[in-house]
Amino acid sequence: VYVTRKLPEETLNALKEKAEVGMWPHEEKAVPREVLLKEAQKAEGLLTMLSDKVDGELLDNAPSLKVVANLAVGYDNIDIHKAKENNVTVCNTPDVLTDSTADLAFALILAAARRVVESANYVKEGKWNSWGPLLLAGADVHHKTIGIVGMGRIGEAVARRANGFDMNILYYNRNRKPDAERNLNAEYKDFYDLLKESDFVVCLAPLTAETKGMFNREAFQAMKKSAIFINAGRGASVDEEALVDALQNGIIAGAGLDVFEKEPIAVDHPFLTMNQVVALPHIGSASVETRMKMAELAGRNIAFVLDGKAAETPVS
Ligand code: 8YV
């Protein structure tokens, strides 16, 4: 089994009982493509990250490969159709990261609305030498309308948090969620109606052919001028040029972004000079507790499949 980033050794105990485990030795540096291809040629299992492309080239040159476990709930880096064709089980890490990612999405809502990062920088930079009633005044979150695009497990967890803030909850999803409507007071809306009515538009959709670029010029134009756009789903769901334009021209008021079209984001990206943008380095699930659980789950998935058992969390 090859693990494509350095993970804490103890998270892979279950796996090590079943397999010889090789690991890329760096935590923050992605495994080079040629190393990944070479390791895949001889591996029965791969424990991969979102940054690893598990495509046709890799899968067709991995004759012993039985299982790929991605350290993420998303798996848009993996050609799952090809994997199925080649009898390779693909696994993800759902559930264990739901609450941490929802916490972070909510942190972005609060940070963007209440200008938390801008205000913290103001203090740290020694600029706090007076006071005025509207100094760094932001927008309220409580009692506002939140529109959740992508009402999966994480979307529902965000809705639970929004209920605690007495928010009015709208959602858009490829299929209706009767349980969320009943238990979370979430009201289904067409995409454009949701955009028109929401104070906070929160993207938590997976990246698919339908969601790619769905937040385009027309979408931002449909939002309120006071709207704050949050993305804790996938960067490619957004036309970034359109978002930059919407922010620069007052079409919407602000954004809280954990994901980007290209990650890491370029150091000269226009987002980085905008006070109304809170940009984070894709840390949605990055609590120590959750990252340990994700690694353990990915390791167990591989161990189960190599043992001839069903994976705990296969993707389809
Ligand atoms: C990643 C994520 O797991 O789960 C996902 O789909 O986007 C994140 O939680 C993280 O970036 C590590 O790949």
TrEMBL record:
The keyword Cytoplasm is annotated on this UniProt entry: no
Cited Gene3D superfamilies: NAD(P)-binding Rossmann-like Domain (3.40.50.720)
Record-linked InterPro entries: D-isomer_2-hydroxyacid_DH, D-isomer_2_OHA_DH_cat_dom, D-isomer_DH_CS1, D-isomer_DH_NAD-bd, NAD(P)-bd_dom_sf
Cellular component per GO, a single term: cytosol
The D-isomer specific 2-hydroxyacid dehydrogenase catalytic domain, residue ranges: 1-315
Keyword terms, alphabetized: Oxidoreductase
CDD domains, alphabetized: GDH
Domain D-isomer specific 2-hydroxyacid dehydrogenase NAD-binding as annotated: residue spans: 106-284
Top-level taxon of origin: Bacteria
A GO MF label: NAD binding
Family as reported in the entry's similarity comment: Belongs to the D-isomer specific 2-hydroxyacid dehydrogenase family.
Protein name: D-glycerate dehydrogenase
Higher taxonomy: Bacteria, Bacillati, Bacillota, Bacilli, Bacillales
